[in-house]
Amino acid sequence: MTVEFGPPRPPDPTGYVGGQWHLWIMMAAWRLETADEVVVGSEDQGLDEALANLDGRPLTGVEIRPPALATRFDFDGLRLETFPIYRKDPEQGEFEHWLLWLPTGEVLVAGSALTVEPTAPAGVVRGRRCPCPRCGDPGGGTGGGEAALLR
Length: 151
Known about the structure:
By secondary structure, this protein is mainly beta. It contains one helix and 14 strands, in the order ββββαββββββββββ. β8 (88-89) and β9 form a beta hairpin.
């Protein structure tokens, strides 16, 4: 799942407008919830409709909980909770649970540790390329639910 938030960036050559912040959740389960109910989980049907609840909500906080780096992203009344589901791949090494592109161009990476990485063109970090329109995937999106631009 990818989420764009923050002030909009100028449109890319295809006309896609993303936010200054970009979150890609890839090797973690997640759920969107309020204080009283679970709105949607990563394996539910109707992801795009449920994720539209994030539209227009500012990011108001982030809490990263060791040792697994489970993370809560607070969006003004909604919480996006991530739960790492893998620790290590015997052939590939460590998994990244999520990556957060910062306005500075750096990327915060949560995997076996929390690191700040430089980014390369086309959204490549640690040899992986984000599959969203912002990062240049001609197919656009992840197919797993993509939230609208958040302000």
